[in-house]
Amino acid sequence: MRQMAKEPVTKIDPKKELSPYLNHEFNQQRNSRKNKAKISASLSSLQKERRRSLRRRLGLIMTVSILAIAGLGFYISPMANISTVKVIGASDLPTKEIIKVSKIKASDKVFDYLFQQKDLSKKLSKKYPEIKSVQVHLGHINQLILQINERKVVGYLKDGDSYRKILDNEKIGNKALVWSEVTQNKPIFVGYNKSNSLKEDVKLFNSLPESFKDQVKLLSDNTKRNSQIVLVMKDGNVVIGNMITLKQKVHYYKAIKNKAGKHSLIDLEIGAFSRPLTSSEKKAYGIS
């Protein structure tokens, strides 16, 4: 019988064959340990952060509570009562009367008035038209400072031997001023016995160009007609105009005065012409 050939025998190394599987298992176990360590570290860090956040919140609550208690304690104590009131920014107005009108008392609390500025402004401006608004500041611990913001002065109304401010809201100030208290570059309104004519002339004056208004020294209500307005200029000229048309004609003034010269009457009421002032006119308008 023919003998069958032997098949070659392949030797297998179990270690070599199992090595990839074992390595994979080992890597998985190692990664698992690492992941567990990371998770543990993350949880620990999260817990620490939560504890810190809780401490911060508790600290903030305690701080706010302590400040609130301290503030409340100060508010109800006599130290929070107003000791002095200082008024600034109202040189022409009587300080004592302003405080009296404001009804601020020594028993009042300083902080109450810091939140009542609008009411205080309304109260004082109702009594004194010169006052536009009032700002309240804290000076020392219990000193109240009233900062008075006055209205812009358009001119002055001659009232007998005294003068009153004409304000930018067309109202008249309460305080009677002597000549030394009058701002000299502002115009004087004279002869105005009727409030209606004064309001109309002030309104017209406010509508004129600033360059022209700066040249006006005096406005007179001693006119021949209700529609007429008389302006005495700082250069010694007198301008007569119509209430309706003056605003459109004032731009002729510079050219006419350059031709007319000093101490001229420039009539812009009907047309536009000029002539020298008479002696009686100079006396009537206070021009020398």
Overview of this protein structure:
Keywords: Cell cycle, Cell division, Cell membrane, Membrane, Transmembrane, Transmembrane helix. Cell division protein that may be involved in stabilizing or promoting the assembly of the division complex. InterPro entries: DivIB, FtsQ_DivIB, POTRA, POTRA_FtsQ_type. The chain crosses the membrane at residues 58-76. It comes from Lactobacillus ultunensis DSM 16047. This protein is of the alpha/beta class and 288 residues long. The chain has three domains: 34-70; 79-150, membrane protein fhac (Ubiquitin-like (UB roll), Roll), CATH 3.10.20.310; 153-284, Rossmann fold (3-Layer(aba) Sandwich). 42% of the residues lie in helices and 21% in strands. The strands form two sheets. The chain has an eight-stranded mixed beta sheet, covered by helices on one side. A three-stranded mixed beta sheet has the order 1-3-2. A hairpin with a 2-residue loop joins strand 4 and strand 5 (162-167). The chain starts with 13 loop residues before the first helix and ends with a helix.
CATH class of the largest domain: Alpha Beta
**Average pLDDT across residues?**
83
Structural class: alpha/beta
Low-pLDDT segments: none
Counting DSSP E segments of at least 2 residues, the number of strands comes to 11
The major pleated sheet works out as: 8 strands, mixed
What strand order characterises the main sheet? Answer: 5-4-6-7-8-9-10-11
Give the overall shape, derived from the CA principal axes. Answer: elongated
- The name of the CATH architecture of the largest domain is 3-Layer(aba) Sandwich
User: Number of folding domains?
Assistant: 3
Strand content: 15-25%
Task: List the helices and strands in order.
Answer: HEHHHEEEEEHHEEEHHEEH
Here the CATH topology of the largest domain equals Rossmann fold
Helix content: 40-55%
Through-space gap between termini:
166 Å
What's the Cα radius of gyration?
A: 45 Å
Q: Can you count the helices?
A: 9
